[in-house]
């Protein structure tokens, strides 16, 4: 499905590359373009709007109909599911059930790559939160689950091995992140899947001042250099059978160009993309 031939990394890997969202990348979709145009360029997308609320089942069915059969979706769990908002257990269980029902069209089609739980920075390494991570597997027993932990305590030297073991035991994948390293506001780059055969890497950029400010519109305003992209690719090489890079550094619209450049650096060619208009003639 996804083919990579890389002389740079000296081994053949299965690589996928994509972006967060598909509506804000005019560099590849053109003005007013959407998912159908996005799928002409990349084989996977991260749906982040679901973090703010469950989408209708029909929306996912419509998205699925716009892309090739081998296109994949990473779907973010809602803020209730990631404990950004605290609710009683009955409400939480209902949220999980409604979410699972909404993404059923992707599950049936075999196009759900991961459900991504991006936890808030205050979600630190303690017994209560560890129990919640283990509980995720009971709430969604059959779906592929991944987490982005945003509190550095999970990857402190004394906790890193236990964190990865906890995730492995719960059959949950660790999403590695590349982000600015600032005191008290970052987690280290940990390119270890914990569970499964795919290493997922989310690239937030390295805008240190924007990260410190916390302003959403500047946090991810960053353009990776070729040297930095090669550095990240080298750090990930050999860590898993498959590697998936998701570029989230789009405040300044650098995500799509950076993703395309990573594709060039790695020598990746994606099979089965949606045909571009010129390809139809």
Summarize the structure.
The chain is an alpha/beta fold and 281 residues long. It is built from eleven helices and ten strands.
Please give a structural write-up.
With 281 residues, the chain is α/β, with parallel strands linked by helices. The chain has a single domain, classed as TIM Barrel, CATH 3.20.20.410. Helices cover 33% and strands 19% of the residues. The protein contains eleven helices and ten strands. The strands form two sheets. It has an eight-stranded parallel β-barrel. A two-stranded antiparallel ribbon has the order 1-10. Helix 7 (160-169) links the parallel strand 6 and strand 7 (172-178). Helix 10 packs across helix 11. The chain is globular and about 50 Å long.
CATH superfamily: Protein of unknown function UPF0759
Q: List unreliable stretches of 5+ residues.
A: 1-11
How can the largest sheet be summarized? 8 strands, parallel, barrel
Average pLDDT metric = 92
Overall geometry comes to globular
The radius of gyration over CA amounts to 18 Å
Number of domains: 1
Number of strands: 10
């Amino acid at each position: 499905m996804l083919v990579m031939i890389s002389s740079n990394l000296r081994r053949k890997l299965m690589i996928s590359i994509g972006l967060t969202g598909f509506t804000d990348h005019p560099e590849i979709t053109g003005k007013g373009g959407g998912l159908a145009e996005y799928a002409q360029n990349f084989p996977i997308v991260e749906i982040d709007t679901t973090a703010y609320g469950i989408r209708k089942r029909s929306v996912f069915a419509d998205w699925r109909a716009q892309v090739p059969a081998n296109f994949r979706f990473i779907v973010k769990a809602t803020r209730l599911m990631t404990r950004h908002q605290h609710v009683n257990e009955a409400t939480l269980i209902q949220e999980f059930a409604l979410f699972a029902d909404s993404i059923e069209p992707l599950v049936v089609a075999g196009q759900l790559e991961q459900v991504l739980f991006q936890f808030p920075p205050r979600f630190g390494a303690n017994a209560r939160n560890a129990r919640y991570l283990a509980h995720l597997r009971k709430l969604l027993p059959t779906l592929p689950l991944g987490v982005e932990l945003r509190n550095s305590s999970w990857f402190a030297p004394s906790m890193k091995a236990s964190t990865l073991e906890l995730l492995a035991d719960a059959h949950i994948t660790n999403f590695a992140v590349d982000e600015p390293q600032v005191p008290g506001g970052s987690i280290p780059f940990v390119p270890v899947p914990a569970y499964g055969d795919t290493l997922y890497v989310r690239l937030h950029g390295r805008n240190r001042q924007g990260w410190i400010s916390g302003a959403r519109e500047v946090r991810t305003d960053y353009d990776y250099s070729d040297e930095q992209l090669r550095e990240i690719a080298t750090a990930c090489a050999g860590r898993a059978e498959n590697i998936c890079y998701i570029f989230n550094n789009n405040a300044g619209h650098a995500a799509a160009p950076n993703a395309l450049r990573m594709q060039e650096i790695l020598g990746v060619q994606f099979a089965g993309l949606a045909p571009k208009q010129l390809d139809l003639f």
